Amino acid sequence: MRRGDAAVFSISVALAAVVAGAVALSVYVDDRPRGIFDPAAENSTASLLVVTWGPSLCKVDPSNAGCTSGHVGKLGPTLIMHGLWPQPPTQQFCGVPNEGGKRQDQQSTSMSSLDLPRDVQANLDSMMSDAEIMAPHEWRAHGSCSGVPPAEYFGIATELTEQVNEILDPVFEKSQGGHVSLSEVRDRFAGEFGADAGTRVSLNCRDVDGEGMVAYEVHVSLPPVTDLRHEANTVALKDVITKGPEIAAACRRASVP
Questions:
Q1: Which run of H or of E encompasses 184?
Q2: Residue 81 belongs to what H/E stretch?
């Protein structure tokens, strides 16, 4: 190779290295995880508070970690918190990195990384089937789209769950061994908060082999999570229940374990 050609070749190699480095840096910047809280997620139109009747959970999914450990049983007959889900349903996994075509889930988020206050974590332990598993998953799948940080997201969810329990636990308890109807659930909300409140609640059921349809979850329609924030760090269900959209009936009547 002549000296001039060698010089041109060396320059070309150097330029190629620079371009390759720039491309690699660009890919690195684009693929960086965007953090545990994505403020840009404040674009949901509503939210759903989803609570599950504990005994039904263990009928539908007996291998659930909270059922096999006995934790759900220790909580007693009560509605336990599934999650607070920004709507529409496409609002999921906001800012959660995608690796190899699969979204990272709770395997890359631990309870400790959520940095929750002790009282919030204690409430989650007393309201979820298995908070160590469920809370990280619920944050990544739904909380990441809420527009609020983890402590506030779970604080709002647990406060609302506690209030729903006060209203509906007696309805489900008296129906154990029998049936509960959507009208009973809606009438209870209407009696507490006015007629319009009943249309913001739905009953969801699951088909269990040998037992037929079992009352499984209650969905409560609410405004976006960012609209549930309160200066006093508390949110009253009575103040927000009619600000969410009406929701479909789903299930009309089912048995209660």
A1: helix 182-193
A2: strand 79-87
Note every long-range contact of 188-194, with CB atoms under 8 Å and residues 24 or more positions apart, other chains counting: 189/241, 192/167, 192/238, 193/237, 193/238, 193/241, 193/242, 194/242
Total number of domains constituting the chain: 2
Q: Are residues 108 and 220 in the same domain?
A: yes
Q: Are residues 92 and 151 in the same domain?
A: yes
Domain that holds residue 1: 1-32
Do 104 and 16 sit in the same domain of this protein?
A: no
pTM for the model: 0.82
For residue range 106-162, what is the model confidence (pLDDT) as tens digits? 445 789 889 999 999 999 999 999 999 999 999 999 999 999 999 999 999 999 999
Q: Distance between alpha carbon 215 and the CA centroid of its chain, in Å?
A: 20
Contact (CB, 8 A) for 56 and 128: no
Question: Pick from 188, 197, 229: which is nearest to 79 by CA?
Answer: 188
Of the candidates 150, 146, 147, the one whose C-alpha atom is nearest the C-alpha of residue 131 is: 150
How much is the pLDDT for 84? 98
The answer, yes or no, to whether residue 12 has pLDDT greater than 90, is: no
Query: pLDDT band for position 19 (50/70/90)?
Result: very low
